[in-house]
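User: I've been trying to design a sequence by hand for this structure and keep getting stuck. Would you show me what you'd pick, starting by listing the structure so we're on the same page?

Assistant: Good idea, let's start from the same input. This is the structure you sent:
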């Protein structure tokens, strides 16, 4: 038995040197260490040996097993470190590739349109302070408009931004006037979730400040964005809207493209979807960010990017977009 064990060791060393990949290593490991290996057979037949010989052979078997285990481990590490550079260009392409989210695509399209109009793309923090999310937008703590956006507060007194409008404040502070910025980003509200409301969704803020900016400038930009994104004229309606940081304020709704205005769960049976509130920047907001409202005026808008993606790609339920369900999302593999 002792001779056989020495022979096995010699044989193993010769074989492991020529192992080229992990499959071969698995085979060799099972050949020498598996339940049906010769070493296991020797170990189970030791019972019949006299006690002295049993002790000697047992110790040899254990030593050999430990040596083989160590060599297999070293070979495994060697093969893994080499495998990074081991490309097989003849392998078929993995068809389960990832794709961009419809929200990312639509966001980029809107940014492209705005950049052509001279807008700069900016960003702001998702964890905001109360001043930028509310106070600087003419929403002091006593203002009932704070209830319009149910807020997630952090223990340190900060909040998850409820809209992208704090980005306008940060841009005014940083760049002053004149100004033309767009800020796409994620927002958070403690909302009841349904087919068109999520607690995490995307908006895109836009702001223009200059001399003699008017409502017709605002409508020109809004119409331009929608016709570029949808590639056709979509029916919209403009109605008065209340936001403390604009005056006058408007709600711009789009005719629901899921039901063509007939009424469905996505538009809550109204035939219209609130998509793009906007308005002329309130003089108080300009003043708070050190811009003189006697010289400058401006407009701002807050596109619901998630809803825009739903309308463009006919996604009838907002929950699909946040579901992480790859099977559902793969149907929007549009890039
Ligand atoms: C605002 O958030 C304002 N900051 C927009 C604004 C900017 C007005 C600049 C005037 C000037 P509102 O709460 O309506 O407004 O949200 C804007 C858009 O975000 C909505 O029209 C809608 O398209 C989208 N939205 C709002 N809440 C949700 C939600 N829970 N889930 C998905 N989309 C939402």
């Amino acid at each position: 038995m002792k001779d056989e064990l020495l022979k096995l060791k010699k044989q193993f060393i010769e074989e492991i040197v020529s192992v080229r990949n992990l499959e071969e290593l698995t085979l060799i490991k099972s050949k020498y260490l598996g339940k049906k290996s010769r070493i296991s057979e020797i170990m189970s037949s030791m019972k019949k040996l006299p006690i002295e010989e049993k002790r000697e052979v047992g110790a040899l078997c254990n030593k050999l097993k430990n040596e083989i285990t160590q060599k297999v481990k070293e070979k495994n590490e060697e093969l893994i470190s080499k495998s990074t550079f081991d490309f097989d260009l003849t392998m078929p392409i993995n068809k389960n590739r990832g794709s961009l989210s419809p929200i990312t695509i639509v966001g980029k399209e809107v940014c492209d349109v705005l950049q052509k109009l001279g807008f700069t793309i900016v960003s702001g923090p998702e964890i905001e302070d109360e001043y930028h999310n509310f106070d600087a937008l003419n929403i002091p703590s006593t203002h009932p408009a704070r209830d319009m956006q149910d807020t997630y507060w952090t223990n340190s007194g900060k909040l998850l931004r409820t809209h992208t409008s704090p980005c306008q404040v940060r841009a005014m502070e940083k760049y002053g006037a004149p100004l033309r910025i767009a800020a796409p980003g994620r927002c958070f509200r403690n909302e009841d979730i349904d087919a068109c409301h999520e607690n995490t969704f995307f908006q895109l803020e836009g702001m223009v400040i200059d001399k003699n900016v008017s409502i017709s400038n605002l409508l020109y930009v809004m119409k331009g964005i929608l016709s570029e994104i949808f590639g056709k004229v979509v029916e919209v309606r403009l109605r008065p809207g209340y936001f403390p940081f604009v005056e006058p304020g408007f709600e711009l709704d789009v005719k629901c493209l899921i039901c063509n205005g007939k009424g469905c769960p996505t538009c809550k049976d109204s035939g219209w979807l609130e998509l793009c509130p906007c308005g002329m920047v309130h003089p108080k907001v300009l003043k708070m960010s050190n811009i003189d409202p006697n010289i400058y005026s401006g407009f701002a808008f807050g596109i619901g990017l998630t809803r825009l993606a739903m309308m463009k790609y006919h996604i009838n339920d907002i929950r699909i977009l946040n579901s992480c369900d790859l099977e559902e999302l793969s149907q929007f593999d549009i890039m």
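That's my pick for every position. To get oriented when you compare it with your attempt: The pocket of adenosine-5'-[phenylalaninyl-phosphate] is lined by residues 163, 165, 189, 191, 197-198, 201, 203, 243, 246, 249, 274-275, 277-279, 300-302, 304, 306-307, 318 (CB under 6 Å). The first strand starts at residue 120 and ends at 121.
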